[in-house]
Amino acid sequence: MPAPARAKQPPIETRPLEERIQRRVYELYVLRGNQSGSELDDWQQAEEEGRRAEEEGIALAIGRARNDRQWSRSYYEILG
User: Fold this and answer.
1) Residue 8 lies in a domain
2) Which residues contact 63 (CB under 8 A, 6 or more apart)?
3) What is the distance between the alpha carbons of residues 76 and 79, in angstroms, rounded to a whole number?
4) Between 26 and 3, the higher pLDDT residue
5) Would the pLDDT of 10 be above 50?
6) 49 with 24: CB under 8 angstroms?
7) Three-state DSSP string of the chain
8) Residue 10 lies inside a defined structural domain of this protein
9) How far apart are CA 64 and CA 34, in angstroms?
10) pLDDT of residue 62
11) Which domain, by its residues, includes 42?
12) What's the pLDDT tens digit per position in 20-61?
C-alpha cells in the first residue's frame, strides 16, 4: 500500500517574512559548508534580502495595479 501523499508546502513567497529569513539563514550556513561563526552576518544578510524582496514585490504589485487600471481606462475609452 503506498504511503499517503504529503501535503505540499506553499511557495516560499507566501510564507511569513520571519520564516523566509530563517530558511535563508540556514541556506547561507549550508553554503558555507556548515561552518559556524558567521551567524550574525548570515542573519543580517538574510534580513536585508528578505526585506528587499518584500519591497520589490510590493512595488511590482503596485505597478501591475496601475498598469491594469491604465489598460482598463484605455480599453473603455476605445469602446466608449
Assistant:
1) no
2) none
3) 5
4) 26
5) no
6) yes
7) CCCCCCCCCCCHHHCCHHHHHHHHHHHHHHHCCCCCCCHHHHHHHHHHHHHHHHHHHHHHHHHHHHHHHHHHHHHHHHHC
8) no
9) 40
10) 73
11) 15-79
12) 889 999 999 999 999 999 999 999 999 998 888 888 877 777
For 6, counting Cβ atoms within 10 Å of its Cβ (0-12 exposed, 13-18 middle, 19+ buried), the class is exposed
- With cut-offs at 50, 70 and 90, classify the pLDDT of residue 72: low
Q: How many domains does the chain have?
A: 1
Angle between helices 39-79 and 17-31 (to 10 degrees): 130
Using an 8 Å Cβ cutoff, are 42 and 27 in contact?
no
Greater confidence (1 vs 56) lies with 56
Q: Which residue is associated with the grid cell 559548508?
A: 33
